[in-house]
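[Meeting: bench + compute handoff]

Bench side (C.D.) handed over the final construct sequence. Compute side (W.E.) agreed to return the predicted structure before the next meeting so the bench team could plan truncations. Sequence as handed over:
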Amino acid sequence: LECRSALALLGAMARRSPPARRCICLVLAALLAGWSRFLVCTFTALHPMAAPRSPTVARRGWADPGWNWGSPFGTAHDLAMGVRANLDTRAVRESWLEQALAGQVDVEDIKLALGLRIQHAARQGIDGNGAGRRLMSDMAACKYEGPDGPGSLLQDLDALCLALPAAPSFSDAPAGVGRSAARALAGMGFLEGGL
């Protein structure tokens, strides 16, 4: 078996096994991978209450070589677990959107939340006829990294919002990435469906 396939198999076995066998599977997976980090990630995945409930800002963002968007291994996956755990109820998501509208949410957290929500919205057909999927592909291609990134992201978010019939205006909030992201997230069912 390829290493990642073996790790996935051991992880699946661990989730369905009694505690003693779960520990054995986790140790084997850690030895196979050679990563002590795997145990921490798997423990967090198996025990959601252990997931961090603090801000999960990606320091280098989508351009980080270890980001691996779409993979069960990498920084994106690790941070996604934390963001999902942090935004697990509608009340928390409403509060988070208010913070985003006020410009108090880091742009890297916004991009991660957008990527996660777009994945669901695209499968449900509520991403603006593929506009959300295109934005997510551009994020994965690092279009929004670097000094011009936030301006490009703002422009593309505004275009996405035009394609979303349910995007609220939030006209009382100051213009910026936070407001445009909040509009896009709300228009793709973020409050109701989460990440």
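W.E. noted at the follow-up: The mean pLDDT is 78. C.D. will use this when planning the next construct.
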